[in-house]
Request: fold
Amino acid sequence: MSKAKFHQQIQALAAQIAGRELDSDLEQWLNRNHGADSATYAALQQSCQTGVAEGWLCEREAGGIRYGRVFKPEAALHDFSVDVVDMDDIKGPHHSHPHGEIDLIMPLDAQARFDEHPAGWLVYPPGSAHHPTVTRGRALVLYLLPQGSISFTR
Reply:
């Protein structure tokens, strides 16, 4: 797996969600079409696990959370940025999503939950905010942020 191949995977997905409202309808659509039992999910999970193992994903660490921005927003990704975090039973820093956030939850421990959600997709609408929290084990979470927009609370 290479970073270029990962970019192609994200590009194909971003093309399908570009222009859609970030809301519960999108979350349901993602889980129905690219959910935890899908080939898309399996491929993205494998890419993320490989990227972490090879060191090109989650290359930074702060406060017990490994993280990293893989791709900045660009036209090929329909103006989404791509971040991946590696969290193990930890509460992350509070932040808001001016334009929303699309999360792919990939538990590495079967019972792990991200913001109380199991494997699959979670969509936060524009203007939402949270403390990203992984409980009951370790999980990777891929974030798609429109325009790369995120605002950490001071």
Q: What stands out?
A: The radius of gyration is 14 Å. The longest strand covers residues 133-146. The chain has a mean pLDDT of 97. The CA atoms of residues 95 and 131 lie 7 Å apart.
